[in-house]
C-alpha cells in the first residue's frame, strides 16, 4: 500500500506547486550555485518530511487502536470510501459547512512564524520552514493521512506519510531551483487529474479491506486481522519448562 502513497505524492505534487509553490519560490536558498541550492532544498524537504512522518505516526497509532479492536478491514474500506466521497461530493456543498474555518484560524500564527523564518538565510531556518510548512492545511495531505490511518500501525503510518512526502519532493525541488517553470494553464490541466488519482488510491484501500487474496493489493483475511485462535498454554508444558530450567 506504500505504492499508493507514492502515487498520491507524485500526482499531487502538481497541486503542491499551487499550494506550496509560493513558499518554494521565495525560499532563502543560494541560487547562484545549483549544487548549493539543491543541498539547501534537501534540508527544507527533511523538515517537511519530519512533520509528515510525525503526523503519520499519530494517525497510524489511531489506526493501530482500531486494528487491535479487530476493525482493520472495515477501517481500510471506510478510509477508501471517504477518499472517493471527498472527490465525488461537490466542493461548494462541503464548503458551506466551513469545516476548515477553525483550523485556518489556528494556523494564522503558524503562517506568521513561517514568514519570519523566510527572512533568514541559514540551513537551520530552511529546516524550520520545511517543518512548519508540513503543518499548513492541505486537502491532499488530509487524503494521505486517511491512508496512514488505514495502515493500522504507527510506524507504517509514519512511513506512509514519509513516502507521500518523497513523492511531492521532485516537483517542489524543481520549483525551488527553476522557479515557476509551469504555466498556470498547464497546472490547471494537470490538477484535473488529481481527483482521479485520489479515487484510484481510495479504490486500492477498499480492495485491501475486501481481502480478496490478490498479492500486494488485497491480502488474505488472515493478514489483516489479529489471530484470536491462539492455542492456550498447557499446564504440563509449564511444569516441563520449569523442570528443564532447574536442571
Structure description:
By secondary structure, this protein is mainly alpha-helical. The protein has one domain. 73% of the residues lie in helices and 0% in strands. It contains 13 helices and no strands. It has helices at 2-19, 21-25, 34-68, 72-88, 91-95, 101-106, 108-117, 123-133, 139-150, 154-178, 184-191, 194-210, 235-246. α3 (34-68) runs antiparallel to α10 and α9 (139-150) packs antiparallel against α10. The longest helix has 35 residues, at 34-68. The radius of gyration is 22 Å and the shape is globular. The model is unreliable at 225-232 and 238-247 (pLDDT under 50).
Number of domains: 1
Shape: globular
User: Main beta sheet, described?
Assistant: none
Radius of gyration over C-alpha positions, nearest whole angstrom:
22 Å
> pLDDT average, as an integer?
77
Q: What's the N-to-C terminus distance?
A: 49 Å
Oligomer: single chain
Secondary structure: helix percent = over 70%
Instruction: State the secondary-structure class.
Output: mainly alpha
Estimated share of beta-strand residues: under 5%
Beta strands, count: 0
Give the SSE order as H and E letters. Answer: HHHHHHHHHHHHH
Low-confidence stretches: 225-232, 238-247
**So how many helices?**
13
Brief summary:
The chain is mainly α and 247 residues long. It has helices at residues 2-19, 21-25, 34-68, 72-88, 91-95, 101-106, 108-117, 123-133, 139-150, 154-178, 184-191, 194-210, 235-246.
